Amino acid sequence: MTRRVARIRRILALLGLLGAFYGIPLMVVTAQPPTTPPEPVRPPGAAVEPAGDETPLPVTILPQPARTDMWRQIRRGEAGYVPLPDELAGLAIQSEGEVWRNFRNGPYKAYAGWYLAFVVAGLAIFYVLRGRIRLDRPPTGIRIERFSFLERFTHWLTAVCFVVLGLSGLNIVYGRDLLMPILGKETFAPIAMWGKLAHNYLAFGFILGLALMFVQWVWFNLPTRADLVWLLRGGGLFGGGHPPAGKFNAGQKLIFWVVILGGLSLSLSGLQLLFPYEFRFFDGTFRFLNDWFGTDLPTGLTPLAEQQLATLWHGIVGIFMIGVILAHIYIGTLGMEGAFDAMWEGEVDLEWAREHHGLWVEALERRGALPQPAE
To answer: What does the pLDDT read at residue 197?
Structure first.
């Protein structure tokens, strides 16, 4: 019994000694006042190279007071240092993106919608007031070739591709607001997906059609003196009768150049969207305009700003061309008798050709290329 009590006393004495060894330093440390936080963690001196007279911004992982100048630089889109090859990774905030989004979801969609509604309403009113343009005299029954097979193939290749591109593009802009509430998400989603795929791939068919169209028809669409007469008479709306025209009248020539130049612009901006950050067309264009015309367009655009401008320009030009092509479709179908046969069958009646393209018929007569009537 005496041995057991002695053993217990030795254990308690050992515990007390350990408590004194660890407890007293802990009490001293706890009783000391708090020290100031350490300095912010900074990168090595060679990691940040200040531009000009600017001082490098501190990199810290600890809470810091507000730095107004630092956030002002970030808000202006000044990129910081990042150890990555992607130059966009150092851009914390791109303020132009907010401007782009507000314009695209606001004035862009509103004005584009009003423009298309105005075109459709104008064509409907014109049809009611003017009616269909018919021949002044009965057809002769003599058919002459208006367009060859290659010309018709080029036209329909370009036309079909543009229709699909136009519808799928309108779906990208307005589909979520107009179609999805009607069709539902489950139906709208595959339509949007396949439309986007068709938009991407048929763009190359449209580019091919533009190239073929330019090669075959550019010589017939150069301006002449007869075009001025045609325009002054409004294509026959003023002065009575049909003004003289070659293979293409002034109205068709205007549509041709709108399609060629607008299609070229659409193709370039579309390639910039298909292959992001590979092309920078706007910065070079703005520099050219500033040098030659004294404009003050922004230069030194970031790759992201280039993409944002490409989306807006692609949509604006596309909407404008849709309105022009709607007028072209109207004239080629409801607006003029016999116009659709010219591009569908490739042949027109001789009387139709004389009334609408008299100068072209005269050129055929001089070459002896007109068929002779049967005895």
So the answer is: 96
